[in-house]
Amino acid sequence: AKMAAPASELLTGWCLFGLALLAILIFCWVYVRKYQSRRESEVISTITAIFALAVALISSALLPVDIFLVSYMKNQNGTFKAWADANVSRQIEDTVLYGYYTLYSIILFCVFLWIPFVYFYYEEKEEDDGNTCLQVKTALKYTLGFITICAVLLLIGAFVPLDIPNKKNSTEWEKVKLLFEEFGSSHGLTALSFSISSLTVIGMLAAITYTAYGMSALPLNLIKGTTSAAYERLENTEDIEEVEQHLLRIKSKCRDGRPLSSRDRRTVQQLEERLRTLRRRERHLESIEKSWWTKFCEAIRPLKIVWGVFFIIVALLFTVSLFLSNLDKALHSAGFDSGFIILGTNLTNPLNMLLPVLQTVFPLDYILITTIVMYFIFTSMAGIRNMGIWFFWIRLYKIRRGKTRPQALLFLCMILLLIVLHTSYMIYSLAPQYVMYGSQKYLVQLILFVLYESVLFAFLLDQCIVTRTYLFLHKFWFFSAAYYFGNWAFIAVFLIGLIVSCCKGKKSVIEGEVDEDDSDMSDDELSVYYH
User: Fold this and answer.
1) pLDDT for res 275
2) Neighbour tally for 67: CB within 10 Å
3) Which of 70, 92, 112, 152 pairs with 447 at a CA distance of 20 to 30 A?
4) Is the peptide bond between 165 and the residue preceding it cis, with omega within 30 degrees of 0?
5) Can you give the pTM of this predicted structure?
6) How far apart are CA 397 and CA 381, in angstroms?
7) What percent of the chain has pLDDT over 90?
8) Which of 48-62, 115-129, 179-193, 221-235 has the lowest mean pLDDT?
């Protein structure tokens, strides 16, 4: 008799999902409020940033859920559970697929419509206060370019065929008809996959730039810590006295009424700007030294070192596994024309070795995958925070506590959305078999029933259920080829960042908080944050 999945398990699952969603929303609100400028905060930009960041985190959590569901439908002996018949398994597959449709559609909406519109609306608001209609009109005009790009990507993905029969006597109308039939049979999956894959390539570039550096900088910064606020105040006081004495020496030249030379005037101007910056640093250091947060951070310093060591181990595990996986593709794949795709694993890597061991104790393998995904996201945040937002060699925005402009937060959330799209392929590169089938096993009848691990031909025999993630990853071989070369670039940037981070000394306790182009009003923002 067919048995339904226990209602208590489903209820528990929904409760855990609700709690996770609530935790994500709370984290996004705290993160955005922590970094946004108090003077320039806007309701619409704040809501957009929180929503986009939440979508990024929820999307990253969908991969472990997808792997868990396909694994949960089968027993350890390779047979399907009593409740997981063909109809139920198909419903679960469709539900996960619709989840991907929904989240990926929301990502397209955010990247091509909502975030650009809010960004350009805020830019126009700064230039032309009061005329709301003109601001909306101008923002829509600029956003129309992004919408056009999205429409072109969807059309290319919808009507560029993946498999066209080579019939010499086929007419043009038959070819066009075949395109529409293929689009209808895929239910829009190919169009969405092409658009998402195009954004994933951009996310790959962002991951190479920010995530690779963040994976090296975040652990080492936790291990090394920051300089003492009291020691920095002492050095800052000495610098103030030195600049003041230099100013007095220059100004003493004009005591008898003689005007200063143009060179001296420029020097005086530079020294006065330097003095203002040093005095702002003094106020910031004083606030930090007296704050309860600083005392709390000093108390948990040993815990930070432990976390730093753990993060560097995860980063090295990730990088070594990625290197061996890419090397396997270089040696055993069919080459560039196939997107460097390989069937099976010829060179094992630490992650591939670790996952089968953890599968024996539920749910350690899912915890590891979730940890790697979340680590990928948080190191991306750390990389963006440390480097700022750049357009080639031009620095556009800085990410600073309590002083980040709304446009910078929108850029940060858009970059994270793109990086999250690339996360799935990175995990697939590390453990392709696990991402495709999870911990499923299947039975093949030769003379006796023999237990095998799931491999590619199990999918052909309908013995295992492939994850929905895989359907989005390998629709187009040229994207897979781009990801392959991107993985090599990621490894190179990580190693360079690791060397640079090792050579750098301790960070200042107010690293990036005080710059010469800051106004004195910005001091109030940081004071409010620390108090």
Assistant:
1) 86
2) 25
3) 70
4) no
5) 0.77
6) 14
7) 3
8) 179-193
In angstroms, the CA 509 to CA 28 distance is: 24
Cβ neighbour number for residue 215 with a 10 Å cutoff: 30
Based on DSSP, count helices (H) and strands (E) in the chain, helices before strands. 20, 4
365 CB burial (10 A radius; 0-12, 13-18, 19+) = buried
Q: Give dist(CA 365, CA 430) in Å, integer.
A: 14
Q: What is the pLDDT of residue 433?
A: 74
| CA separation for the pair 201, 221 (Å, rounded) | 29
- Tell me what the mean pLDDT of segment 263-292 comes to: 83
CA atoms within 13 A on the CB side of 278: 18
Residue with tokens 């004495």: 245
* Phi, psi of 220, rounded to the nearest 5 degrees: -70, -35
Radius of gyration of the chain (CA): 28
Q: What would you measure as the largest C-alpha separation in the chain, in angstroms? A: 110
Report pLDDT for 98: 81
**Taken in order 137, 141, 144, 146, is the CA torsion positive or negative?**
negative
Contact assessment for residue 321 and residue 430, using Cβ atoms and an 8 Å cutoff: yes
C-alpha span between 405 and 39 (Å, rounded): 9
Q: Which residues contact 110 (CB under 8 A, 6 or more apart)?
A: 51, 52, 55, 413, 414, 417
Written as one string, the DSSP assignment of 79-121 is: PBPTT--HHHHHHHHHHHHHHHHHHHHHHHHIIIIIHHHHHHH
Mean pLDDT computed over 450-468:
54
**Tell me, what DSSP letter sits at residue 36?**
B
Distance between CA 140 and CA 13 in Å, rounded?
Answer: 41
**Every domain of the chain and the residues it spans:** 15-225+303-503
Six token digits for residue 332:
């055993």
502 or 126, which is more confident: 502
pLDDT at residue number 168? 47
Residues 399 and 114: beta-carbon distance below 8 Å: no
Half-sphere exposure of 47 (CA within 13 A, CB side): 5
